[in-house]
């Protein structure tokens, strides 16, 4: 085995306990921009905001926000807690209980995904900032390439009630690459 | 596996899609007859040839339209519903009570 640590080789981390939230509507982009978030230019793209919040655009008018590790998602949690429906056509989509959130990282991410997903997720076809809403291990999953120069990394968002099954399916696919589950504390430091 | 081109997500396995029925123009519910409305809601033309249909991409819950040949099963093109629905439809309740 190589000298890489598990996160750099092949690791699965359960981020489900961190805050995440969605917004949708014709005024959602305007509202999010005014609130200080950077937004992707096109559907099925994602951008990282300065504070570490990841914003994925799922359609012309829908956004999925993943909390930052630096504040453990507190900014998004307070965004959701303080939400009041106003005149604007911008609607809150609670995502905490609908989606589970996993992070698959390491140099084998594309090879692992190739075993359980029909879409080409290799770096040349699915570069950093890409989003794929597709079928993974027979579940509907949102795949976000949130990698960096140092670390290849996918976020996987699936039906929360199916987390136990999905985690087992991904870990099974990771087996041949020496993949292991890693505790969230290793990211939070 | 058959591949369908989703207007939002690109080419995907056909197993990622759900068929949503024939595309039909809705008669005005305020002025049409009960027979016209029942025809719109319940009946299908079931044509042999190129038809317009609703399809949904499951993973993104995105509904779109497709033109498909029902004999050869060839998908001719897929497109966003905005191409057809380009203005808001207002629904008004019946002014008199329904018998």
TrEMBL record, chain A:
Stated name of the protein? Sarcosine oxidase
Task: Tell me the InterPro entries matching this sequence.
Answer: SoxG (IPR007375), TrmE/GcvT-like (IPR027266)
| Pfam families, per the entry | SoxG
Q: Which domain of life is it from?
A: Bacteria
UniProtKB/TrEMBL annotation, chain B:
Gene Ontology biological-process entries: tetrahydrofolate metabolic process
Molecular functions per Gene Ontology: sarcosine oxidase activity
A Pfam family that the UniProt record links to this protein:
SoxD
Recorded protein name is Sarcosine oxidase subunit delta
Organism source for this protein?
Pseudomonas bharatica CSV86
